[in-house]
Write the structure tokens for this entry.
Amino acid sequence: MTDTYAVIHSILTMTFRVPDHEIGPQVTLEQLQLDSLALAELALLLEERIGVKLDSEHATRFTTLAEITEHLDALRRGEAVGAP
């Protein structure tokens, strides 16, 4: 995975205290039991650390960490990204 995934992983383990063994590319935000407030905080932290904004339409409870990583990487490359 990319450095974007490493940042996501770090935020989840350090800020949200998600155990490392529960995190994986195909895990959804719902499986991590992140509520709407946590999702908003995750988006803010990702924007601060990566420099691109994760829109709520790309971070639903059913979005996988791999999908978030792919979306953020595309934004970092300057690619236009539509809704999932």
